[in-house]
Model the fold of this input.
Amino acid sequence: MKRSMLFTLSTMFVLLSLFVSVVCADSDIDQNRDCKHCGMDRKAFGYSRMLVEYKDGRKVGTCSLHCVVTELNGKNGEVISIKVADRDTRKLIDAEKAVWVIGGNKRGVMTMRAKWAFASKAAAQKFVDANGGKIAAWSDALAAAQEDNAPMKH
Done:
């Protein structure tokens, strides 16, 4: 009797944990449905969305790295974290720890040169094998986005 009760409670705990993680995974979308800079629906672009967190507690949701660069260029305060959606799972991960892919044949969001984030090198490599592009670090992806966002000089 005790074993079955323990099993039932354990199962309920696991299911509740899974439910909470799924609900919390999209809470950034609920709180910041539209991109602050371009107005695009962050749920529709859940695979490229980003979230900038400031020291004062503010959180700014964007649809893409392009709009994060716009946010960062606005010098809106001290940034404590930047999160990005894993392209495959849509789960937010630390942008600095993500494995980035620059380029390839998949159309980017708000840019001509795509920049995608992945939670693992294996997932990024699988994407590159199927779609082209090159694996890069956060600093490279950010530099590429800043370059792509720079005003054209005539």
About this structure: The longest helix spans residues 2-25. The chain has one domain: 27-149. The chain is about 40% helix and 20% strand.
